[in-house]
Amino acid sequence: MPGDDWTAAWQPLRDLVGHDIDPPGVVFGPDRVEAGAIRRLTEVLELDCPLHHDEATARAHGWPGVVAPYTSVWSYVFAPVWEPGDPAAFPDSGRNELPRTSPMQTETFPSAPPTTHIFATNTSYEFVRPLRVGERVGITGRRLIACTPKETSVGRGAFVRVGRRFLTEDDEEVCRVELEMYLYNPHPVDPEAADERDE
Predict the structure, then answer these.
(1) Phi and psi for 175 in degrees, rounded to 5?
(2) Is the pTM of this model over 0.85?
(3) pLDDT tens-digit profile of 170-197?
(4) Distance between CA atoms of 151 and 157, rounded to whole angstroms?
């Protein structure tokens, strides 16, 4: 029936595929890469690669010194969850409470229809090189790669894929990432089915 195509609501976002959907520029993380932070990260992972703790070995392999594990790149770009003077990060003490602010709470998309739920479906990284001690890294805005409306078993929505780049203050690229998420509204709950599950 004409007018029943719910996917039409996603067309304005689909029209932005291939375009930047965030303001231009690079948003830098709050801290520079520090040897102590690398040590704490590798310690908890029991990651004993000498490139992350031995200056001589790192230099022998062409680096100016100790480097951070590739996968730590997000640690250096996420904004703080709490800073001095802020109210408590977790305003409520319930089991499933969320912090007052979170980097994931900013995943909104211009021109997308309203949705209430989101989950990540795929992440792909292309690392150019690891971060060096003393560097500060930032991340570019999102470039929309794909928007595919789809009804799934959990609801109606769209798989949305974006690309971003991690850059140093010298504008040197260290990583490219593609992130895909499913933005959706859950199917209405059938009260009878819910009652059967609860029994």
Answers:
(1) -165, 150
(2) no
(3) 999 999 999 999 999 999 987 665 555 5
(4) 6
